Amino acid sequence: MPMVETASPALAVIPLIFACALFAAGAGYAFWWVKRLGRRMSAGQVAWPLVFVAYLVFIAVWCAIGWLDAGIGALDMAVWSAAQTACGLCTLARRPVLDWIESLPRPAAEGIRAGRDVSVLAGVSIASALMVDAAWSDLAGSIPVRFVAFTALLLAGFGVVAYALGQRSGVLMCLVPIAAAGFGVAQYFVVQLKGAAILPSDLLALDTAAAVAGAYDFILTPQIFWVLCVVGVCVCLLSFVWPGRVSSRRARMANIAVNVACGAALSAGCVGLFRSVSIDEALGFTYDRWQPIETYRSCGFVPSFISLLQDFAIPVPEGYTSEGAQALEDELAAQFDMGMGAAPERLAACEQFEQVRPTVIAVMNETFTDLSLYEGLRAAGYTGPEGYNSLTGTLMRGTLMASVMGGGTANTEFEFLTGNSSAFIGFGKYPYQLYDLSGVDSLASQFAGLGYATTAMHPQLPSNYNRSSVYPELGFGEFLSIDDFGEVESYHAGARDKATYDKVLELLEGDDAPQFIFDLTMQNHSGYDPGSVPAEDVVRYAPAGVADEALLGQLDTYLACISMSDNDLMYFMDRLRGLSRPVVLVFFGDHQPNFSGALNDALYPGEDPFLHEMRTYESTYMVWANYEVAGAPLDVRTEVGAAQLAAQVLYRIGAPLSDYQKAQLVLDAQVPAVNLLGYRGADGLRYALEAESPYRGALNQMATLQYENFARKVQ
To answer: Phi-psi category of 218—alpha, beta or left, where left has phi over 0 and alpha has psi -120 to 50?
Structure first.
């Protein structure tokens, strides 16, 4: 995240003083209630004010850590603390107020309760609808009323369900404002970390998010600070929602049963509406696939999130049938066999592969890209990773079209290992988190079928993106996680690239048989705050048009990481050159860094939105061998999609191909690169996925084949 000035930790004293005052007032109230009035205190009388004591202490601790923005001054802290203390004091009056309502004639009491509950629910729902976007977006005030109204109605629906399941009390209803603020705050931090919006599948990757969260400072902005104040007010109001006493045990049990039944019926109704009503059509908006964060900003978090959630199923290609898809695959595979497959260079490579059976090492280097693709940065003197760009004798290299930017590593990994593109799965979906991949073809199972030992390695927690389960499903015989690396040299965000390369070399030394090794590095993971790399490694660049010092600081830190990665790659390749065994190295970066969107906007204002966004989804790749591959021309430059890279590599080294890969290669002649946003045609132009082009038919065939080989197996 960008560096920001933080408030003085001394401000923590202010909420602590108010917390002590509130606790003292609560203790005095308890003494008066029990000793003077001789009455027993209920659990609610004790718990509600203590909630606010804990809230004040929480903010004090957050401030003491140094995680409050400098824009929050002593006066702000005093007002906020006073407001939360006042809310806590109000809850002390809760019991007398409820007792007074209880003393009224039943019709009057029920009328007051009904009016109170409806008013509180409406107020809390509206406040929550405003909070969820106010916490993260400066444009929250410009969101059209219909989107805010939809959010408020949806949250009111959740509130009514919580009201019923919570036995008509406000306890469970407190989850509505807390969740609204929580999602808003989380969205703020995700935007800062990845430049992206929270997606439904992100909720399935919370363990991964938690694993990398320690590298960041979660600094509360003034916006968030005041949203948290409103949360306290909402909780205070909800503390007064209570149904009153029930005279008999039988009546109590009947009330519980009726409330639970109503809650269940309301929940079923909400699910039915979700399945039957399209949010996009009902509210009249179109999701921006090129810049999804802009949809969140202009339409609000909740409508955008729900829209994605409704589109979670993998779309069926138009006219798809399993029989038709299989016939298409057979036809294209036959075309390959008679054309590309019968070419002399392919036949020579196949004969050689059977004889030498090379080890294949795939390195997906975390956030490794060549940012010299940005002309303004190139003009400022940056020419890209020096060693990498000066390599000669590669089998192929060029631009890799990725389907993620700033995060979402697992999707580039999935595309490369399975040959399936996110373009035909849909936006916001992480297959590693959503599907059982045990029946899906992959490079690992393909090499295992050839008798290769298969190993995946990643110096991080094995639970990240569910890899500990996914890798065996994909056919890897072994998975080396952070626990298998021991004490290794770190750089920036984790184990240095060199540590993973040494682990690969260790595997090669321990087994002369052919191996397929997939190495996912960690070193270059975001964020890129200055100070996370040695000062002597940083080179200062100042591209014209980029005035944001925080952005420039991130850029310089990131480029220092890439320089270290470049050095380690040269070391690794030197070691591979010295081996007597044949080795093929596939090296690629998974995505651009999280600040690329801001850099792109600064350097290329006013561009066509699609082409502008596509630039941030470019990464880089190269394929190299330490032996002379028969029939293979050298230094071929071509752009490929992450899902298309593996088939291209196998073709060039003479490895056996599946019918699906053969079909892919035939279609690659028309659409050589595709990602989640669009594709490049054989004419060199880029097209949005939905746009008409001369290659529309080939793209539809790709979607049909992938549905047959992937979606049909996992849905």
So the answer is: beta
* Numbered ranges of CATH 3.40.720.10 in the chain: 343-714
Which residue do the tokens 């593996």 mark?
646
pLDDT for residue 200: 77
The DSSP secondary structure of 186-199, one letter per residue, reads: HHHHHHHHHSS---
The answer, yes or no, to whether residue 3 has pLDDT greater than 60, is no
Residues 418, 443: Cα–Cα separation, whole Å? 6
Tokens at 399, concatenated: 């631009």
Q: What is the pLDDT of residues 319-358, one digit of tens each?
A: 999 999 999 999 999 999 999 999 999 999 999 999 999 9
For residue 328, give both structure tokens.
Answer: 């298409």
DSSP state of 200: G
Please identify which residue in the block is written with the tokens 């979700």.
274
CATH, range 343-714: 3.40.720.10
pLDDT band at 427 (very low <50, low <70, confident <90, very high): confident
Tell me if the bond preceding 475 is cis, omega within 30° of 0.
no
Tokens of 99: 């007792």
**Alpha-carbon gap, residue 202 to 292, rounded angstroms:** 15
The widest CA-to-CA distance across the chain, in whole angstroms, is 101
DSSP annotation of 32 reads I
CB atoms within 10 A of CB 456: 25
Give, rounded to a whole angstrom, the gap between the first and last alpha carbons of the chain. 37
Instruction: Using alpha carbons, list the distances in angstroms from residue 338 to 341, 344, 650, 666.
Output: 6, 12, 18, 11
HEC-encoded secondary structure of 573-615 = HHHHHCCCCCEEEEEEECCCCCCHHHHHHHHCCCCCHHHHHHH
- Taking Cα atoms as reference points, which of 49, 56, 61, 58 lies closest to residue 79? 56
In the numeric block, which tokens belong to residue 683?
Answer: 């004419």
CA angle (462 as vertex; 562, 209 as ends), nearest 5: 65
DSSP annotation string for 208-257: HHHHHHTTS--PBPHHHHHHHHHHHHHHHHHTT------SSHHHHHHHHH
Cα-to-chain-centroid distance, residue 127: 27
- Pair 261, 113: CB distance under 8 Å: no
- For residue 170, what are its two tokens? 């406000």
**Can you tell me the distance from the alpha carbon of 411 to that of 398, in angstroms, rounded to the nearest whole number?**
20
The pTM score is 0.77
Confidence of residue 31 (pLDDT cuts 50, 70, 90): confident
Rounded distance, CA 53 to CA 48, Å? Answer: 9
The pLDDT assigned to 75 comes to: 94
Task: Report the pLDDT value the prediction gives residue 120, as an integer from 0 to 100.
Answer: 97
CB 612 within 8 A of CB 586: no
281-314 residue pLDDT tens: 888 877 776 567 888 999 999 998 888 888 778 9
CB environment 213-223: b (16+ within 10 A), e (fewer): eebeebbbbeb
**pLDDT tens sequence across 576-586:** 999 999 999 99
| Closest of 706, 121, 503, 432 to residue 698, by C-alpha | 706
Q: Is 163 exposed, middle or buried (0-12, 13-18, 19+ CB in 10 A)?
A: buried
**Per-residue tokens: 443:** 């490079």
Whether the per-residue pLDDT at 80 is higher than 70: the answer is: yes
Find the angle CA(32)-CA(38)-CA(42) to the nearest 5 degrees: 80
Buried b / exposed e over 27-53, threshold 16 CB at 10 Å, is: eebeeebeeeeeeeeeebbeebbebbb
What strand order describes the sheet that includes 673-674? 673-674, 678-680, 686-688
- The DSSP call for residue 341 is G
